[in-house]
Specification:
The protein is α/β, with parallel strands linked by helices. The protein has helices at residues 16-21, 37-46, 59-64, 95-100; strands spanning 2-7, 27-30, 49-51, 68-73, 76-81, 85-86, 89-90, 105-107, 114-119, 124-129, 141-149, 152-161. The strands form 3 sheets. It has a 5-stranded mixed β-sheet with strand order 3-2-1-11-12. The chain has a 5-stranded mixed β-sheet with strand order 4-5-8-10-9, with no helix packed on it. The longest helix is centred in the first third of the chain and has 10 residues, at 37-46. The chain is globular, with a radius of gyration of 14 Å.
């Protein structure tokens, strides 16, 4: 079993509250808009980090993280990207591939809206952890924790934090 801490849209902001929520996680996954390399470095020093760059990320982040990351975790095919949309409203950047070669788990950020939706059309779980940073229109900062084991995605915690 792998315990995942999922975060997005930090926009150069990371605090000890976020780290406290992820202290029992095995890995942290960041769905883009780190905002600064310092955020990535702090997360990577805390736990193993996987991530993708977002639309606000500069060359330092883009040199260290891809636009799309597709990998397996406990036999679950995971695709993470920053601008991905959501079921029935996928971004043109991912639409073709998500329908021709769907993952089991599709993760994106960008909207600052926490969503967990199962797409029955392609048998894929979609997760957007919302925004953990303080920049943007969102009123509450959010994170997601979950587990993957034996090809199952389970044990979700949706976390809200003060802005």
């Amino acid at each position: 079993m792998v315990k995942i801490g999922l975060i997005s849209d930090t926009h150069s902001y990371i605090d000890d509250t976020i780290l406290k929520h992820f202290e029992n996680c095995d890995e942290i996954w960041h769905a883009g808009d780190f905002g600064s390399m310092e955020v990535a470095e702090k997360l990577a020093a805390f736990k193993p980090l996987k991530g993708v760059y977002g639309n606000i990320d500069g060359p330092d982040i883009r040199q260290n993280f891809p636009e799309n990351l597709r990998f397996n975790c406990e036999k679950v095919d995971v695709w993470m990207t920053h601008i991905g949309g959501y079921p029935d409203h996928y971004s043109p950047l991912v639409k073709r591939e998500i329908y021709t070669k769907p993952p089991n788990l599709f993760i994106c950020g960008h909207s600052h809206i926490l969503k967990v939706i199962y797409d029955k059309k392609i048998n894929c779980l979609h997760i957007n952890p919302g925004a953990a940073g303080k920049q943007g229109w969102h009123k509450v900062r959010t994170l997601v924790r979950f587990c993957i084991s034996e090809e199952k995605i389970h044990t979700f915690d949706l976390i809200e934090m003060q802005r």
